[in-house]
Design a protein that fits this description.
Radius of gyration: 23 Å
Largest sheet: 7 strands, mixed
Number of helices: 15
Strand order of the largest sheet: 15-18-19-14-13-21-22
CATH class of the largest domain: Alpha Beta
Structural class: alpha/beta
Strand content: 15-25%
Oligomer: single chain
Bound molecules: nicotinamide-adenine-dinucleotide
Length: 479
């Protein structure tokens, strides 16, 4: 049994009240580690540590902060295979995906913000009588709360810019995927991150998560997770006037126009629908197809989806691993049942999978494609967050835009067309924070990242997030 510990004041430590949670490996359904169920005592010690570290971290030169962060990135690189295996064991995703996406991107996140901070600048405004300049200071102590789908990737996506801008951080990974955050703490110790600058507290959202959100000494919350949780966090943090960044759920459309390069559109849409078992906030779960090519798209799409191998995340040819938990697979399966009740036709998939051997009690589900549903039914309105997509047809551009925009969400949209003006026109008309044209998940970390409507508030990435994690102060000098 592996014991995962909190990271407080520069050391790994047990929770003060000695309460622990079981951690289950999704591919086997077995408990393989335990993690702290942290409490008020743990956060109080972490806050005191962060307060002690705050002044020297904020006043360290950016070059020195950057150098420590680069050492942390190197530390992950040196233990790359161990990190990737831990991520797959904890989350259920294929090992090749942990390597190609999660751990590679975690390293990239840290290196990106460690170097971006060296180029961060503020503005000045001149008149005939005055010079104004903007000072940007760290906020102080900030809270970073992340979800289970891309554990280290999203954990570092928040922590790295918060640290680079000179803040001390109280961070909480998801209780479902705590493993790589704990390995990350070991790396921080080895890299010489000063004690108290980063504190990692494990536990549930309702317990330690909510204590982080409520804590009066934490002045900003960066949260990624579900829309309902985000609304709850906002209801507590907003009256305390905390800065808030909320990256929430989605119900993303993929629009296939009649002039799309179908070969590329189909193979990429298989990826955008089912990568990471469909458990990426950016996955396209509503596939909208021009009616003139609907049957052609459907036939080839299903053929390719049926070839995706479901099973043991540690087998090299597995394309779809385990869903993250028993609760989550039950939720996703209930949406397939709902879709059938709503009149949907399951074109492929729909069943639980029981691989032989070590994974027979794991949480596996066939990739599922459903057609015959209206855009307004619950299956097409609510986030499922699993390997389940629907197909709908449209007859013209206006209808495609209206279907795509027709949910409460607005995270990411995907367009496939070879028509340049149409690509620009439709991108502008879509109510989403991100639009990919003829591609998916190509990420440039300098770009603003986030959603509109119920998909969130604020933007991460690039200089946007460095502005989020700093307070601007205007200094006005009379000439
Ligand atoms: P979740 O909202 O259940 O939990 C996210 C994190 O918040 C976890 O660490 C959890 O412990 C914590 N939490 C839960 N309740 C809390 C509370 N009351 N106070 C403070 N913290 C609390 O989400 P999840 O199930 O872990 O993740 C899936 C969701 O995340 C999906 O909706 C997905 O779309 C979304 N997501 C969004 C993005 C994005 O960038 N927009 C990225 C990844 C995932």
């Amino acid at each position: 049994m592996i014991t995962l510990q909190n990271y407080i004041n520069g050391s790994l430590c047990n929770p003060i009240e000695n309460n622990w949670l079981d951690n289950i490996e999704p591919a086997t359904g077995k408990v393989y580690s335990r993690l702290p169920d942290s409490s008020q005592y743990d956060i109080d010690i972490a806050i005191e540590a962060a307060k002690s570290a705050q002044y020297s971290w904020a006043n360290m030169s950016v070059e020195d902060r950057s150098a420590i962060m680069m050492k942390i990135a190197d530390g992950i690189r040196n233990r790359f295979d161990e990190f990737a295996a831990a991520e797959s064991k904890d989350q259920g995703k294929p090992l090749w995906l942990s390597k190609a996406m999660d751990i590679s991107r975690a390293i990239q996140n840290i290196e990106f913000f460690a170097t971006e901070i060296l180029h961060f600048a503020s503005e000045s405004h001149h008149t005939s009588q005055t010079i104004n300049y903007t000072l940007r200071s760290p906020i102080g102590i900030v809270g970073c709360i992340s979800p289970w789908n891309l554990p280290l990737y999203l954990f570092t996506w928040k922590i790295a810019p918060a640290l680079a801008t000179g803040n001390c951080v109280i961070a909480k990974p998801s209780e479902l995927t705590p493993y790589t955050a704990t390995l990350f703490a070991e790396i921080c110790i080895e890299a010489g991150l000063p004690a108290g600058v980063l504190n990692i507290l494990h536990g549930t959202g309702n317990n330690i998560g909510s204590l982080i959100v409520k804590h009066p000494d934490i002045h900003a919350i960066s949260f990624t997770g579900g829309t309902v949780t985000g609304a709850h966090i906002a209801s507590i943090a907003a009256p305390m006037f905390k800065k808030l960044s909320l990256e929430l759920g989605g119900k993303n459309p993929t629009i296939i126009f009649e002039d799309a390069n179908l070969e590329q559109a189909i193979s990429t849409t298989v990826r955008s629908a089912f990568t990471n078992q469909g458990e990426i906030c950016l996955c396209g779960s509503r596939i909208l197809i021009h009616d003139s090519i609907y049957e052609q798209f459907k036939t080839e799409f299903i053929k390719q989806v049926q070839q995706l191998k479901v099973g043991d995340p540690f087998e090299a040819d597995t394309k779809i691993g385990a869903l993250v938990s028993e609760g989550h697979i039950n939720k996703v399966k209930s949406y397939i049942d709902l879709a059938i009740q709503e009149g949907g036709i399951v074109l492929c998939g729909g069943n639980l999978v029981y691989p032989q051997g070590a994974c027979e009690k794991g949480y596996f589900l066939e990739p599922t494609v459903i057609e015959g549903l209206s855009n307004t039914c619950r299956t097409n309105q609510e986030e499922i967050f699993g390997p389940v997509v629907t197909l709908q047809s449209f007859s013209d551009e206006a209808e495609a835009i209206s279907l795509a925009n027709g949910t409460i969400y607005g995270l990411a949209a995907n367009i496939w067309t070879e028509h340049l003006s149409k690509a620009h026109r439709v991108s502008a008309a879509l109510d989403f924070g991100i639009v990919w044209v003829n591609c998916w998940l190509l990420r440039d970390l300098r770009t603003p990242f986030g959603g509109v409507k119920h998909s969130g508030v604020g933007r991460e990435g690039g200089f946007e997030v460095l502005r989020f994690f700093t307070e601007p102060k205007n200094v006005c000098i009379k000439i």
